[in-house]
Each structure stands twice: as structure tokens, then as C-alpha cells.
Fold this protein.
Amino acid sequence: MRVLVVTDAWKPQVNGVVHSLEAISRQAPALGAEICFCTPDGFPTIGLPSYREIRLAIASPRRVAQRIDAARADHVHIATEGPLGLAARRICLLRRAPFTTSYHTRFPEYLHARTRLPPRWSYAALRAFHNAGAGVMVSTQRLARELQARGFRRTMIWSRGVDHELFRPRPSVLDLPRPIFLYAGRVAIEKNIEAFLALDLPGSKVVVGDGPARAALQARYADAHFMGMQKGEALAQLYSSADAFVFPSRTDTFGIVLLEALASGLPVAAFPAPGPIDVVPPEAGVLSDDLRAACLGALGLSRETARNHALRYTWAASARQFLDNLRVARAAWRSAEQGQLFHDRQAVEAR
């Protein structure tokens, strides 16, 4: 099976969407599939207001249709709700071609944090976008139930994985007062990083990552150590050098960084919010509305137990689940299409 993934999120962006799509594309050939991409590459782009690092494609439906045709794919999966995703959705609907989507990001909450736009407005638009497809993939059962309650249909579970070879326990490379509390991820308002930086904690606070909120937070919290964007070995070394991983976000749908930290033998401290609730068990992290207590409690947890829990998540299993979802969605669509044709024929014959 050849799959075309249409995504507005792509390199050089560093986020969970890009990471997940790249990871499953590497696993697909071993599972008898090939994944190709329609990304902003090759299109004119414009920076997202208030977040210039994210570039949105300026693409007409005609040009996106040309990309879809050139891919000669058996199935189209729309990963994001941006300009490319909207154009691909329109084309698939006009052609009566099956497509699936995925729900990666809590845009209603993010938009509310940045603009105060009522979340119900955003959810109405997202519901219309995703319900037009043959299935919408979500990362956890909890998120599926939440979206179903908001009127989303045909939800399918697509979990995530982690590179156990890259993210593993290693000797520390940080010469800082201990304990070391680490945050890694995008440095933006919706990540709620200030809830971590404002805590009265012993030792050191380390922030790894970049984003629009970095300059303001770095100026406000001079005692914290901002390491900037890190990748690969450098990132893995920083995970394993810390004593606890702090995840202050209340709006993530999963949090791949949670698995990276756990695989590095790093217990987690987080709010009892979506993402941590589904990924972090009590023996590998502390979830509490008192984030300071969670941070201190995580220091007493077993690093080996954290690592062992992360070993349950693999990118091979994630890719297999993704491809299985496509097959199930396509079969259901064909059945529904045949049923519609049958009823249409009956209506014609009855006239």
C-alpha cells in the first residue's frame, strides 16, 4: 500500500507531528507499505502570526491536486488542519475518494490561550473538518472519548513510540547543583512552562527547546538554565543527566517527550492532565495539581522502572497501528459507499 500523508507541519519544525510522521515512514517498508508526503516544501509560505517559526503553505487546490496525482497513492491521510490539509480534504470530497485524518493538537485550547477565542467555535470547525473523513486518528482512548462527546465520529487509536537506543540511561553531562529538574519541548505559552519556572525547588531548573516565549521567560527567570534547541545525542544526554522531568502542559494530546524522558530513565512530574494521565503510570511519575509536590515526589522513583515502562512503546507498533487503521477505514468506506449506491439505485427504480 502506498500512502500519501498531507501535512502542514514539516521540517525544519521540531514537534510531535513531524517526529511521529517521520518515525512511521521509516517503519512502513518493513510492514509492506510506503509513505510519501505532501508538505509545504515547494510552495510559497508565510509565517504563522505570533509564531513566525511555523510556515504555512500558500497553495491552491489545483496545485495540491497535482501533488496528490503525482504521488499515485492508494490512500490519502490528512495529518493537519492547515492550508494543505484543507485543500486536500476539498479535493478528496470532490472526487469521492476516501481519506483519513489525525487529531494531533488541541488547537481550540491553544487559540484560546493566545487570542481568547471561545474553544466551542474552534471545536465546531474541527468537527466539520474531521467528520468528513473515513476516520480520525487520536493518540489515546481518553482523547477519543472526549472528542466523541464533542460530536467527533469514527475515532481510531494511533499511539506513539520512542527510540530506545537513542534515549537510554547515560552518564551525566551537566555540572549543576542537584537535583536537576528538566523541561524539554516547545517554549510557548500553551506549554505552561511558567508553572514550572515559578516553583520554589532545590537544585537547578533546565529548559531545553526554543519558541516564541523563550526570550520573555529567560529574562524573567534568570536562575533557570535555557539550553536552546537540542537534537539527537545531545538531547538524549541532557535527558539522562537530569533527576526528574517536568511536564507542566495541560493541553497536550500525548507528549512524545514523556516517552523520551522515561526511556532515558527519568521519572516524570506533571499535572493530572491529558497526555501524562495516559502515558505515565504511578510507578514512573507523580501527577498532582501541586506541581512542586509532584517534582519532589518524582525524585524518589526508580529510574529503572521508568525505563522499563517506556520499552512498551515502539515505533514499529505505532506504524502497524497506523496502517491497520487505514485498512479498516477504507473497508468501512467501501461498505458505506456500496450501501449508498444501492439506496440511490433503489430510489431511481422507485420513481
User: Anything to note?
Assistant: The chain is about 45% helix and 15% strand. The chain has two domains: 2-161+316-350, 180-310.
